[in-house]
């Protein structure tokens, strides 16, 4: 049945592709401005041997040219299409004059193939080739990107789709890959240095006196309270639309990348957030999105109107457009300073209404982990007492208190049942982590032998970010695990920003009340002032563990998880 | 070779669908579209009963889950076609159409109150001791890995930064001769330790430099907001070219006040103090009003420098800058200063003014 549809789609797509001439050379075939869908575009890279050439190149976004680092001449990098059960040999040719690397985000593989220079291997030196070789033991939507320097921000990222060995339990007639990313004409080192010199550099939506007089944002009393705490409630994103253009498959909002469909089809969108720094709120006005997969793992279908996708996450959704009209795919940055935009349409050249950016969110006392009275908007009666509690070492004895720790949230809450910053009052169905239930029973349903707490710490004034108050440059010992042991890891976000935390080489099960059907993820967004717990079964090796905000990681918000013994599980 | 691959791949994409499914029972609750016809012949196998303790089909080898209660599975009847044997009552319907009648909203496992998986509380096993061996050594060699790890650590929190800031760089027009004024600093270092060079001074366009000083300081982050500054100050310009040891702090106080305080001890034993503060009031995103205040103090008379004991002078400023570009922001404003107490007396005896109001225009810049 599926096969028939696929073949029909193939023919249809071939006809369409012939009719759409605007072919951008720096784009992979699946990301061309009008895409009839993967089933019918020229495929990208598949098979046992795949060659990826990393090099400098130019790219054009909304008509503006800029410099990029791409793979095989494209940004995003080519789609790598694999099949569960196959062996993959990926030859990465480094044509740069600096080291590079490729990390296969979400793939379960031997640690020495994980692609993090300094942890899993020495990196790929300039003008050399490295071959990754590992078996493909899973299926789903994933992605790959550089783990060297800040190359990821420059375009060194691409999608991976792994087809299941058996028939795909998710039925669909057509599929599109949606790679979301953020692009700046500034060199990423410049972006980072600006943040170090003036942390609020890119925030062009601060509270102002003019705003106060017009009754916007916080009232005066609250502004004074927040000023007293030296906290900026408009600090939602470090790098914003003031420099970023938000991309869908390498195309700016003006480029209007278009994904084609036929009325009534079940269209599978494989959404990947490959941004360096941007959390997106994604919706397709007029269409219900049925979430069927998260981080490459199938989940029970759940219908939503909007979802927040943090950096490095993937969501597969099914949409079924019943009208032969255009729909806008809108991905607003979490601070609402810009949007990525694409169109789903039955024919090329169509466009739907693009809704204006919604009002930007303002951080609340809850985001500071100080939601003492259950009140959201900072009616704190405690006054000075609260200030004292903002950074009480007694609330986090394991944290090294230094200049890099601005706050210790005194009252973190589990916010996995909340839709994410700025979506509390969206007025429609928004996905929460608690909505995710694994399709299959979890492979390991043992109770955890122990719990490990890790604090996410930072200082927004100095732009310092760390785990447990220690930057990777300062860390003495990696985080130790015993191979095969089951550990509950609780991430406590002491900062007022979201942190997408990624553990390499593992899937972990979120503790969200779903027992042996807990959602399995490789990256989890820890909302400001909140905690998230997950259970994980340790896999032998050394694994990177970090915040996937590129500049947070660069500032030191990274650790190594060391799982021993290397030969076989002891537990 | 590549074109061939490209050409073949669409066929490969179509293949998975062609291979008929026999593992649908692993994927409960997937809503199939109406147009995807049921496949009874194949699907009838779906609810095949399986022992509850048998691991999931795709489980990794290292995982051997054993439910604490072997009967737990029977209570999970609302898990469609999962690990639990199909409950007797639901069997006929499920056998006919595996996609019918599943309650998608039902919670797994917990329904019976027997916790499993992540619903289980953590134990209190002690954490293992940290291992010191680097796993990748055995594949890539200890030398190469040690070097790579060094680079990794440097690049993740161990970097060196630098900044050059002119908070004031301005033209001043007032009662006397038009003049100029600067107040800036440059630093280089990491998050914790920095080397800082500060300089401030003023002069008249036709009289040369009035007063000027340069400080070379070691800066150390004390806490999230405050930095220690310690080093030497050298006075330049026409007056006595004193050298001072300096010790101070600077940082951000509550309500975003940028404050700085320093003590200066000269080679002759004179002790001075200085407190300085400013605040950036954003009027719009691009317009910033910066009120600024500076107070100088002396522990004793310093006749050579015409400074009297106590509060020696005060300066207040109000500058409105246009910050479309953060790095290069032009401003206009006023600055008022007054010599106080004995210092004012020194000035009067020398026939100098004791201060006044000036209009200023300048550029705040940093790189």
TrEMBL record, chain A:
Pfam families hit by this protein: Cu-oxidase (PF00394), Cu-oxidase_2 (PF07731), Cu-oxidase_3 (PF07732)
GO-annotated cellular components: periplasmic space
Keyword NAD: no
Residue ranges annotated for the Plastocyanin-like domain, each copy included: 55-165, 238-341, 449-565
Record protein name field: Copper resistance system multicopper oxidase
Molecular function terms from GO: copper ion binding; oxidoreductase activity
UniProt superkingdom: Bacteria
InterPro entries: Cu-oxidase-like_N (IPR011707), Cu-oxidase_2nd (IPR001117), Cu-oxidase_C (IPR011706), Cu-oxidase_fam (IPR045087), Cu-R_CopA (IPR006376), Cu_oxidase_CS (IPR033138), Cu_oxidase_Cu_BS (IPR002355), Cupredoxin (IPR008972)
Gene3D superfamilies, per the entry: Cupredoxins - blue copper proteins
Keyword Oxidoreductase: yes
Keywords, in A-Z order: Copper, Metal-binding, Oxidoreductase
From TrEMBL, chain B:
Molecular-function annotations in GO: copper ion binding
GO CC list: cell outer membrane
Domain of life: Bacteria
UniProt entry tagged with the keyword Signal: yes
Keyword flag Signal: yes
Stretch list, region Disordered: 23-134
Residues making up the signal peptide according to the UniProt record: 1-19
Protein name, per record: Copper resistance protein CopB
Protein's GO biological process: intracellular copper ion homeostasis
Compositionally biased tracts (Low complexity): 33-44, 81-95
Cited InterPro entries: Cu-R_B_prcur
Family matches, as Pfam families: CopB (PF05275)
Keywords noted in UniProt: Signal
